[in-house]
Amino acid sequence: MHIAEGFLPPLHAAVWTAAAAPFVVHGVVMLTRQVKNDPESKLLLGASGAFCFALSALKIPSVTGSCSHPTGTGLGAILFKPPIMTVLATITLVFQALLLAHGGFTTLGANAFSMAIAGPWAGYMVYRLSRGAGLLPAVFLGAFVADLVTYCVTSLQLALAFPDPEGGFAGALAKFGGIFAVTQIPLAISEGLLTVLVVRLLRTSAAAELIRLGVTDKKKVAA
Amino acid sequence: MKRGTMINLLLVLAVAALAVIPLAIGAGDGKEEPFAGADAQAEPAILEHDPDYEPWFSPLYEPPSGEIESGLFALQAGIGMGVLGYCLGAVRTRRKLARAESGPDAG
């Protein structure tokens, strides 16, 4: 669930856009390089983008009695590193802002910062740190964190823009966190499980690609 | 059933259970609008903190009804899943062809 159109004050909207822009530009450069140097990875690039696109459209009920949707950004961040995922997730955000009145263009920078930048980077770092525990546990944790961090950042962005009249920034963070981040926990688990499912399928049918992308190595596949 | 297929099936079931449990335990009971979107809940919270805030920009295009909106969401999920399925099928076929080419002993 992204920040709705017009719901960030102009200054905040501008600052988040300026913060997100260099990441998106860098991502486009990396994506072009990836396609040029390794054209065979196009299928997995397509799969990563499509996974994010599909999961972002699924509004799922949560234990808080409200609905939210997963982000689908963990997969691409793990397979292609976060900058490339930044581009794929931004495309999804633009589609939703343009056709679905979900998110928006004035809040695109802030939403891209949470879902296309902070989520993928946090997920990728956790994936790398936990990689020693095995591929699938690391994939689960990476996808879980990418999903959850996205909505923690959304809560942070809203708390910065709209501090609580009494509780200030911390009070607002707790309130928006209760709306976005707590709702997201079961969904982040679902996203982790679905990402594990896709990586399991890729491990059997696209082992060569995974080795080339450095996600796994030969010995691990054979074992 | 092969063990791998079984695990994949269990993963799907777990995801389905996580979506169904909130409905089954009635997590939305007593809410004004049960299972509304989290973003819709954020808007009143924003106005509570800053009663004078007015959204300064409105969406360029807004689906005229809930039906059309859910249709567009379904389209988004459909395109995503279609492309994902195509890509997974294509890498699988590519691997099979590569194996067949390198002879039955290889791979």
Automatic annotation (TrEMBL), chain A:
Gene Ontology BP terms: cobalamin biosynthetic process
Subcellular location field: Cell inner membrane; Cell membrane
Pathway: Cofactor biosynthesis; adenosylcobalamin biosynthesis
InterPro entries per the UniProt record, alphabetical: CbiM, CbiM/NikMN
Protein name: Cobalt transport protein CbiM
Cited function: Part of the energy-coupling factor (ECF) transporter complex CbiMNOQ involved in cobalt import.
Domain of life: Bacteria
GO molecular function term, any single one: cobalt ion transmembrane transporter activity
Gene: cbiM
Topology with respect to the bilayer: Multi-pass membrane protein
Record-annotated membrane-spanning stretches: 13-31, 43-64, 84-113, 134-159, 179-202
Keywords, ordered alphabetically: Cell membrane, Cobalamin biosynthesis, Cobalt, Cobalt transport, Ion transport, Membrane, Transmembrane, Transmembrane helix, Transport
Gene Ontology CC terms, in alphabetical order: ATP-binding cassette (ABC) transporter complex
Oligomer status and interactors: Forms an energy-coupling factor (ECF) transporter complex composed of an ATP-binding protein (A component, CbiO), a transmembrane protein (T component, CbiQ) and 2 possible substrate-capture proteins (S components, CbiM and CbiN) of unknown stoichimetry.
Annotated family: Belongs to the CbiM family.
Entry-linked HAMAP family: CbiM
Automatic annotation (TrEMBL), chain B:
Protein name, as recorded: Cobalt transport protein CbiN
GO terms for cellular component: plasma membrane
Lineage: Bacteria, Bacillati, Actinomycetota, Actinomycetes, Streptosporangiales
Species: Actinomadura craniellae
The protein's annotated pathway: Cofactor biosynthesis; adenosylcobalamin biosynthesis
UniProt entry tagged with the keyword Cell membrane: yes
Transmembrane regions: 71-91
Pfam families hit by this protein: CbiN
Membrane topology listed for this record: Multi-pass membrane protein
